[in-house]
Amino acid sequence: MDRKTTVTIIIVFVLVLGGVLVWKVGPNKSEGAEISKRVASMEKQVDALYTDNKEMLADGVTQKSFDEVYMVFRKEEGKEMSEEIAGRLNTVIMELSMAENMFKLQERTNALVDETGAVVENADIEAVEKLAAELERDKPTFVAAQRVIIEKAIAQQKDSPQMQQTP
């Protein structure tokens, strides 16, 4: 083989290898960009669950709010992604979980009392206090707001002889 043939073979090999790499890596980059867009969308959805400082839940949060984010998340399960995107997704999942725990505490706390603010007959205050204790370290402002209702329910339960007799 002469030098010209060797150089030609090397150039063809490099072009073919380059084409294969572009063909293989190119779609992954665009797919990575799509995943990044979906993660950004999830970040916005999770941010909408909170007030600006992420200490309190936003008004109007419902279970449907969480279900929508989980639906988008399920589409990303098992997909390959960069470490940066995976880190962002992990943060979204942690914040979503925290918001969902806050929502559960809020719902359970509100269930302790009726529309007039009177403690309901079968109020499970212990379970609500346990939830509050679990969240207190991470969301003290939110838990403090819930404790106002919890403390009122406890006081009403102590004052009511009927409630004390309930097992």
Describe this structure in words.
It is built from 6 helices and no strands. The chain is rod-shaped and about 100 Å long. By secondary structure, the chain is an all-alpha fold. 74% of the residues lie in helices and 0% in strands. It has helices spanning 3-47, 63-76, 83-110, 125-136, 140-159, 161-165. α1 packs parallel to α3.
Helix content: over 70%
Q: Which secondary-structure class do the elements indicate?
A: mainly alpha
Query: Low-confidence parts lasting 5 or more residues at pLDDT below 50?
Result: 20-27
* Cα Rg: 27 Å
**How many strands in all?**
0
What's the shape? Answer: rod-shaped
Largest sheet: none
Give the strand content.
under 5%
Mean pLDDT: 82
Number of helices: 6
Which descriptors would you attach to this protein?
167 residues; mainly alpha
Please give a quick description of this structure.
The protein has 167 residues and is mostly helical. It has helices at residues 3-47, 63-76, 83-110, 125-136, 140-159, 161-165.
Helix and strand topology:
Blueprint: H1 3-47, H2 63-76, H3 83-110, H4 125-136, H5 140-159, H6 161-165
Helix pairs in contact: 1-2, 1-3, 2-3, 3-4, 3-5, 4-5
